[in-house]
Specification:
A hairpin with a 2-residue loop joins strand 4 and strand 5 (73-75). 41% of the residues lie in helices and 20% in strands. Helix 3 packs parallel to helix 4. By secondary structure, it is α/β, with parallel strands linked by helices. The longest helix is centred in the last third of the chain and has 15 residues, at 114-128. The chain has a four-stranded parallel β-sheet. The chain has a two-stranded antiparallel sheet with strand order 4-5. The chain contains five helices and six strands, in the order E-H-E-H-H-E-E-E-H-E-H.
């Protein structure tokens, strides 16, 4: 044994088709060797119920990339349709202690900087209370 543990990071395709691929990855990988860094934005854009998915798999999720979408376009966290408050409630209920990382990445190439980070920071403080 090498003692190495991996963390798998998803994009949208793993959650397409009702999440068949991501569920297969959870079933077919060894929990002692593979954890998951869930990109919630891509999961959400592929129509996943992220709070429900997290509740089911939280023991193997070590972190999140949080991003938000409105009408198919990424927007600052808290300004779109991503269910951040519902996810935060499940995180608090389960007393999960992993990482939450706001990820700002525009397919358009736009670099909104503080225009995106400031609202995201405010949203994170509101929903997580820190």
């Amino acid at each position: 044994s090498t003692g190495i543990k991996l963390a798998y990071h998803n994009h949208g395709p793993e959650f397409a088709a009702g999440g068949l691929e991501i569920e297969a990855l959870y079933r077919s990988t060894d929990p002692a060797r593979v954890d998951f860094l869930t990109d919630c934005g891509w999961a959400f854009s592929a129509k996943a119920n992220v709070p429900e998915f997290f509740a089911k798999h939280h023991k193997r999720i070590i972190g999140f990339h949080l991003r938000d979408f409105k009408n198919g376009e990424q927007v600052p966290l808290g300004r779109g349709d991503f269910p951040i408050r519902e996810l935060a409630a499940v995180i608090k209920k389960l007393n999960w202690q992993g990482w939450t990382i706001n990820e700002e990445e525009r397919l358009s190439g736009e670099k909104p900087g503080e225009k995106a980070v400031a609202p995201a920071r405010q949203t994170l403080k509101q929903v997580f209370g820190k």
